[in-house]
Amino acid sequence: MFRQAAIRNVRLFSTSPAFRKSPVETAADAVKSVDRAVSDTLVKGIEKGEEGAAKAKEAAGMTAGEAQQKATEVKKEAEKKAQDVKKETEKKM
């Protein structure tokens, strides 16, 4: 009789335990989702900036090399003008 009572009081075994997240895991998941949203927004902003830079180059009709050459030319012209002004001021003194 004792055996029968023991067998009847045995609880059933379940392989799917209730899954509950701790407060730390919940907070970590929230931080991850916020981080992902912020990084996605920043990436979109960077991409828009790159697109704008490419459009500006196209509008100016110059490649990077052409822009560098033009900058060098302008620099040389500015140096020549500075020397001319220096010579004129020396003559006046």
Topology overview:
Elements lengths: L1 H7 L14 H38 L3 H29 L1
Descriptive account of the structure:
Residues 59-71 have a biased composition (Low complexity). Residues 72-93 have a biased composition (Basic and acidic residues). Residues 51-93 are annotated as: Disordered. There is one protein chain. The protein is mainly alpha-helical. The chain has two domains: 21-61; 64-93. Helices cover 80% and strands 0% of the residues. The longest helix has 38 residues, at 23-60. The radius of gyration is 38 Å and the shape is rod-shaped.
Give the structure's gist in a few sentences.
By secondary structure, this protein is mostly helical. The protein has helices spanning 2-8, 23-60, 64-92. The model has no long low-confidence stretch (mean pLDDT 78).
